[in-house]
Amino acid sequence: MNEKYYQPSGYNSDFDFKGNDFADYIDHIRKKIRLARLDLHSDYCEKIIDANAPFMWLPKENSPNKKRAVLLVHGLYNSPFSLRDLGHFFYQQGFLVYSILLPGHGTVPGDLLHIHRQSWQQAIDFAVNALKDSIDELYLGGMSTGGLLCLDYHLRHPHMNIKGLITLAPALKIKNIAAPISPLIAKISPWLAKNNEDNYSKYRSFAAQPVPEVYRLGRDVLKKMCQKKYLNTKLFMAFSNSDQVISAKTCEQFFRRYASADSRCVIHHKGLNTNNDLRIHSLSDLFPETPPYVLRHNGLPISPENGYYGVNGSYRDPKKNEFLYNPQFDELAKAIVAFLG
Fold first, then answer.
1. What domains lie within the chain, and their CATH numbers?
2. What's the CA gap between 84 and 88, in Å, rounded?
3. Can you tell me whether residue 277 is helix, strand or coil?
4. 13-45 pLDDT per residue, tens
5. Does an H or E element contain 261, and which?
6. Are strands 137-143 and 68-73 parallel, antiparallel or unpaired?
């Protein structure tokens, strides 16, 4: 393994963009990626940069009388590529689609060694400020840590007019029982795992420092919500009860307690689930493939048609020989359409 992957590149450990234009921000981040990545010697150089860079899709069919936009925020160790399928869905609905790259991501895993959640918050604050005056309705959408950061933004800016929050497996509580002592673990060892970096769209090595940052942010969000009766914007939430990373129980409790009447939730269950909350829709998370396929955490926003992770994709998890996608992505998209109204 190349030890340079496990050292900070010097380009991407905080949020340092000083402008206020989103297109300039994208150019700024693309330059960082080009300078820091260690795998740009192949014929796939631009493909790798595109996968990790923020993006901005502006469909012509967006009504000039009512501009609707969504800002997408990826999860920990991941990249904007993980939300491209979801972004394409919004694009087809006529949305302006924007995505950011969280500091520490998209370059080398070593850039997460000294990361702090304030840098992630600064990235979202910049993006919302850059977009708010040019659109009529803004939705925030995020996966895992990204979903948590969307909730956090809303709580930090309660008077900002956010039309709705779309959170997929939000990291309100990390499932691992060692999460409460993750600050101590990060001090003892800087790496939870070092793996071969053979996936160009996400890190496979896990720096320890980001975990307590996510844990503390989730704790802060739950603490703030205890002082409120409900969220003052509508919420869409989706997650699997078999999620290996985040606590599905905490997500469901959060939704039932704080989500407004016009909010919606999709829960993937192993078996048939019954509940008396009409806002909640159940889907299976076990699929009769060979071998049986269980919906995994990072697969939730991935379409079966995805060229890298999908049914005919070129990448499989090297440990489990599995693809990483959501067989019910279309049903998820339909539920989001119903939520949008």
1. 3-340 (3.40.50.1820)
2. 6
3. coil
4. 999 999 999 999 999 999 999 999 999 987 789
5. none
6. parallel
